[in-house]
Amino acid sequence: QMGELLATQQAKIETHPCYSKQAHQYARIHLPVAPACNIQCNYCNRKFDCSNESRPGVVSKLMSPAEAVARYQKVKMRIPETRVVGIAGPGDPLANPKSTIATLKAVAALQHELHLCVSTNGLNLLDHVDDLKAVGVDHLTITINCIDADIGSKIYPWVYFNHKRLRGRVAAQTLIDRQLAGLKAAADLGMLVKINTVLIPGINDHHVAAVAQEVKRLGAMLHNVMPLIAEAEHGTYFGLMGQRSPTESEIAAAREAAGQSMEQMSHCQQCRADAVGKLGQDCHADLDDDGSS
Ligand code: CLF
Ligand code: SF4
Q1: Pick from 221, 195, 209: nearest CA to 254
Q2: How far apart are CA 233 and CA 187, in angstroms?
Q3: Which residues span the domain enclosing 63?
Q4: Is 133 within the bounds of a domain?
Q5: Whole-number Cα distances in Å, 74 to 103, 109, 111, 251, 289
Q6: Which residue, of 119, 139, 190, 265, has the fewest CB within 10 Å?
Q7: pLDDT tens profile 59-85
């Protein structure tokens, strides 16, 4: 029983290009069905995609669930290696639970050999983790940048929770508590939970090892320390305040520190919310015959 379970988990890792570098022959598609967000990150500019996964400055075309499924089917014909359908923005998938779940359900109903994948800031995860599991999501990413509210208050100016806009330490603590509880619930349901941490020099760079330790304890299986992209022209608060991106050696040091407790991902492409194809070989342009995006 146990051996079978592990073999199934292993197969799910080995056929997902983000979870395994060796799975690079498989492709993923992101369906941009989630416009709203329920928190504000200082590295995000709302005119663009969620920067928890994507590089800032990218604008993805928003789709309805029906358009998104049609997009998937078209892409699957052109790129049969497509093995993962992910929802990663342009806002937070779980701040838009109706479109996210409807899209996942419709894709699942096609009964293709596929992984369903969701990337979230985690604020609403606890409320939706059972629905995600029921529809067949086994790959889940939560962006956790810190587990300390003093650090969090420098990253998140506000969090919208229970019909209230929270600020300061309370906002950060609420987000952190919900992220960690959501992580534990997802891991307990058997999901393969990956954690993204945006590395922000001077703010959370000394803290990634503590994050890694805590998420390991709660059941996460992979950690992706992603560099902050801080160029001022993206109009993010951090960019305007002169916050810089980490250097290559700072990224390596952070991954080394976090790597003491968590397996590290180092091949992330910081994909856009409507990414298509194999990692590092995106191919939107030739897919959009209609010339719309
Ligand atoms: Fe997409 Fe994210 Fe799923 Fe991958 S991307 S929702 S886990 S299918 Fe992958 Fe892209 Fe990095 Fe994300 S390379 S940004 S880690
Ligand atoms: Fe932006 Fe994503 Fe943060 Fe929401 S969770 S503010 S969309 S980076």
Answers
A1: 209
A2: 38
A3: 24-287
A4: yes
A5: 15, 16, 16, 37, 11
A6: 190
A7: 778 999 999 999 999 999 999 999 999
3-class secondary structure, 226: strand
Say whether 128 sits in a helix, a strand or coil.
helix
Query: Ligand 1: which residue has its CA nearest to atom 13?
Result: 268
User: Dihedral angle at the C-alpha atoms of 190, 35, 145, 231, nearest 10 degrees?
Assistant: 140
Mutate to test the pocket of ligand 1, among 60, 141, 144 (most ligand atoms within 8 A of CB): 141
- Distance (angstroms) between ligand 2 centre and the Cα of 46 equals 8
Q: For residue 14, is it within any domain?
A: no
User: Looking at the chain, how many residues does it have?
Assistant: 293
Are the C-beta atoms of residues 204 and 197 closer than 8 Å to each other?
A: yes
| Residue nearest to ligand 1 atom 2, measured at CA | 119
Which tokens belong to 88? 């990663």
Q: How far, in Å, from the CA of 210 to the mean position of ligand 1?
A: 23
- Cα–Cα distance for residue pair 216/18, rounded to 1 Å: 18
- Residues of the chain above pLDDT 90, percent: 79
Q: 19 lies in a domain? A: no
Question: Token match 């968590």: residue?
Answer: 262
Q: How far is the CA of 51 from the centre of ligand 1 (A)?
A: 12
196 versus 229: which is more confidently predicted? 196
Nearest ligand (C-alpha, residue 273): 1
- The tally of domains found in the chain comes to 1
Closest CA to 61 of 211, 250, 274: 274
Ligand 1 centroid–CA 18 distance in Å is 6
Residue with CA nearest ligand 1 atom 6: 86
**Model pTM score:** 0.94
Tokens 């305007």 belong to residue: 240
Query: pLDDT band at 285, cuts 50/70/90?
Result: very low
Q: Judge if ipTM > 0.90.
A: yes
